[in-house]
Amino acid sequence: MKVTVFGVGYVGLVQASVLADVGHEVCCVDVDQDKVDRLNQGLIPIYEPGLEPMVRHNHDAGRLTFTTDAAAGVHHGKVQFIAVGTPPDEDGSADLQYVLAVADTIARHMDSPKVVVDKSTVPVGTADKVRQRIASVLKERGADVAFQVVSNPEFLKEGAAVADCMRPDRIVIGSDDEVAIEVMRELYEPFNRQQERTVIMDVRSAELTKYAANCMLATKISFMNEMANLAEKLGADIEAVRRGIGSDPRIGYHFIYPGCGYGGSCFPKDVQALIRAADGIGHDAKILKAVEQVNDDQKTVLMRNIRRHFGDDLKGRTIALWGLAFKPNTDDMREAPSRVLLAALWEAGARVQAYDPEAMEETQRIFGHRDNLVLMGTKEAALKGADALVICTEWQAFRAPDFDFIQQELRQPVIFDGRNLYDPERLAKRGFHYYGIGRGLSI
Ligand code: NAD
């Protein structure tokens, strides 16, 4: 099937590659000329395990193309995916300008029937807006071309995006049009061979399903962080509590890891957007507001512990920071807890020696060159002469470090662990001051 994908970000690029990999002919359109040029040279702008070979392979085979020529993109695909960003507006609601700009583009150039698919995360009612937008541009053009608008939210996880798209838990399709549903079924047929994963529903329910999923996951994290803060004060160990509750299948082990807050391009923005959407219809989304508040507060927990140990003035102190990305296996720094920590450390006068396996380039792009941030080539190098080690991201390579070496390199044996990677008692025996999250046993 011929498919066009507008937006080659994390979602668009991964989805396009996976669709091309099963044989569809996919044309990707983006407004970012530099990104398109790099992709045409086989250079992948983001880090995602397994993505680079898949893009190269399908690009070389001619099934995956990249262009800034929107008209050519519209002519190419029977299915037109909208996978552009929906960043927060000034008040936190989803900014639909990019989605609607693509709708305009499709309407301006279409001359054969299209199925327009909202892949971006968009508030309930957006498919109606996209439909109206396309209809009004077609009317202006005096063109009579059939089209349907479908909601098909994306549930991939950054860091495992390729695997998630190859073997999705579910494929949600929101439409009440039999023709559009049939086209979508055919498109996703290769991903349904083992078992039927498609869930068909009305458009508004599909739009809300995406927000409900992300808000539920964010709620689990904030709930657990609240428990961690209680455990800290009550002298309990949240890690024991986590194992104790996770064993109940009604609760499960997923997404109940306490830490220094959730980040990324989705949870913070989607929780906020649903709160604003609820406000807009006079509904006070009490749980979601608390989820957001707990998370904002949790992003300051590492700094609070650092102040507890060193006092407020960190002038002359050097902090070794392991992990900058908002989670492992990505270079994405959007809303990362590390950014809140860096700002607070700099404000208090500290200098940071940081290392991340994938997010160094992105960190450099965001912060540029500055005296109080040195990006180090290895996690070991980041330790040299630092007053303490702080962990923000649970990269696999940080899980079993050489503690003798850490002790030898740090000026003081202090670890602030934002992801509870280590055993507090074992570290205490080795002579470390160890601050975890909600472990009650800190120091
Ligand atoms: P992104 O910012 O990585 O990529 C968006 C791309 O769209 C950019 O390359 C940008 O240049 C391009 N673009 C903007 N306007 C355009 C236009 N008019 N025509 C063509 N291209 C245009 O965004 P992302 O992380 O891929 O997210 C896209 C959407 O998917 C968002 O709504 C997001 O909430 C949702 N989503 C993201 C994830 C995730 O993990 N990143 C997961 C599920 C859903």
Could you explain the architecture of this structure?
The protein is of the alpha/beta class and 443 residues long. The protein is built from 18 helices and 14 strands. The chain has helices at 10-21, 33-40, 51-60, 70-76, 97-109, 126-141, 161-166, 178-188, 203-234, 238-246, 267-280, 286-298, 301-310, 337-347, 360-367, 379-383, 403-409, 424-429, and strands spanning 2-6, 25-29, 64-67, 79-82, 114-118, 147-151, 171-174, 198-201, 318-322, 351-355, 373-375, 388-391, 414-417, 433-435. The strands form 3 sheets. Strands 3-2-1-4-5-6 form a 6-stranded parallel beta sheet, with helices on both faces. Strands 11-10-9-12-13-14 form a 6-stranded parallel beta sheet. It has a two-stranded parallel sheet with strand order 7-8. The longest helix is centred in the middle third of the chain and has 32 residues, at 203-234. The model has no long low-confidence stretch (mean pLDDT 96). Bound molecules: nicotinamide-adenine-dinucleotide. It comes from Ferrimonas balearica (strain DSM 9799 / CCM 4581 / KCTC 23876 / PAT).
Task: Report a brief summary of the structure.
It holds the Pfam family UDPG_MGDP_dh_N. This protein is of the alpha/beta class and 443 residues long.
